[in-house]
Amino acid sequence: MNLLLHTNECKDDRNYLFPQIQNEFIGLLGKHVKESVMNQIHAVNYFAVILDSTPDVSHVDQISLICHFVAIEDEAVMVREPFLGFWPVLGKTASDI
């Protein structure tokens, strides 16, 4: 069923934009995007992983993860650098990271 048609037919006070539903929707979209990026990475022969640590506004160190690869689709060559996430750094030693 078409979403616009469905929303026009619903005449009651339903609201699907509660914060919990918004967060679930954002989480599902994020999961789909991350799966798509991982599929692109698995399709290439070579890739590089870029890790960088920097403190955030509250002075907590975070590691950011970026993957760097070249995608070739049809005859177009595209350099991709998708951001994959932030993770807190619990210490300064290699075993902590």
**Class per helix and strand makeup:** alpha+beta
* Overall domain count: 1
Could you give the order of the helices and strands?
HHEEEE
**DSSP strand count:** 4
Overall 3D shape: flat
Helix content: 25-40%
Distance between the termini: 48 Å
Poorly predicted ranges: none
Please give the largest β-sheet: 4 strands, antiparallel
Q: What percent of residues are in strands?
A: 25-35%
Whole-number radius of gyration?
Answer: 20 Å
Q: What number is the mean pLDDT?
A: 83
* Number of helices, counting only DSSP H or I runs of 4 residues or more: 2
Can you walk me through this structure?
It contains two helices and four strands. The protein is flat. The chain has helices at 3-9, 19-43; strands at residues 47-55, 61-73, 76-80, 83-88. It starts with a helix and ends in a 9-residue tail after the last strand. A hairpin with a 5-residue loop joins strand 1 and strand 2. Strands 1, 2, 3 and 4 form a four-stranded antiparallel beta sheet that branches. The mean pLDDT is 83. It is of the alpha+beta class and 97 residues long. The protein has one domain.
